[in-house]
Design goal:
The chain is α+β, with helices and mostly antiparallel strands. The chain is built from six helices and nine strands; from the N terminus they run E-H-E-H-H-H-H-E-E-E-E-E-E-H-E. The two termini are about 15 Å apart.
């Protein structure tokens, strides 16, 4: 599997880490990790407010990317901001599964876009390019394709199916489930997110999942 960012997308200042981890036990969820995540959310809610997001460079940077490419729909929000707003609204996040709950926690903590995709449902290579409008995108939780505008940066596989629209919404076909073993994590930044944060986030993901993997295969990390 190869990964590519098209030049016109790279010119926006977008940098991405593609991380593959094999043989994750997605049915195992350690109580100590749950406690750690819950404790972090409690502290986060004490330290931050929705107003503080308006001055946060990590959050604002995704908004600026959308503005540059002409995305004006305010319902299209980058995943870290969306998760943080959900946390403020509900005071916790609804448990989904080990993989999702864990990377959501890291995404909020580092205020960075992270997605996870079941490797077996990805068709060959993945590219981050501007859409032409003829790609297929079935959003998470839906069963019918959604029209896609041209000129949006999206993660697309060799079957011309969108895995993730912008840094906002994943597709349904690669969602993780209790059967997921091999996973592609996509960590995306922007001009105001350092390459060091992208790299350290990838390392953090590897470290947190290491006790719950059974494969001796090396993790694959590509930063482009």
């Amino acid at each position: 599997m190869n990964f590519k960012i098209c030049e016109e997308v790279s010119a926006l200042g977008i940098k991405v880490a593609f991380l593959i981890i094999h043989s994750i036990d997605n049915n195992h969820y350690d109580d100590s990790l749950k406690h750690k995540i819950d404790k972090f959310y409690t502290q986060f809610l004490k330290e931050y407010s929705t107003e503080s997001l308006e001055n946060d460079a990590n959050v604002i940077g995704y908004r600026q990317l959308h503005k540059i490419i002409g995305v004006t729909d305010k319902s299209i929000v980058a995943s870290p901001e969306s998760l943080i707003k959900l946390l403020f609204k509900h005071k916790s996040l609804r448990p989904i599964n080990f993989i999702v709950d864990t990377y959501n926690y890291i995404a909020i903590k580092n205020k960075i876009s992270i997605g996870a995709h079941d490797l077996k449902h990805i068709n060959d290579d993945v590219r981050l390019c501007f859409t032409k409008g003829d790609e297929q995108f079935i959003p998470l939780g839906k069963n019918k394709p959604q029209p896609i505008n041209s000129g949006e940066y999206c993660y697309i596989d060799d079957k011309n199916e969108i895995l993730c629209r912008l840094d906002c919404r994943q597709c349904d076909k690669t969602k993780t489930s209790s059967d997921t073993k091999d996973c592609l994590f996509i960590i995306q930044g922007h001009n105001d997110i350092s390459l060091n944060l992208i790299k350290s986030t990838a390392v953090e993901i590897q470290e947190i999942f290491r006790p719950y993997t059974t494969s001796k295969k090396e993790n694959i990390l590509n930063i482009v």
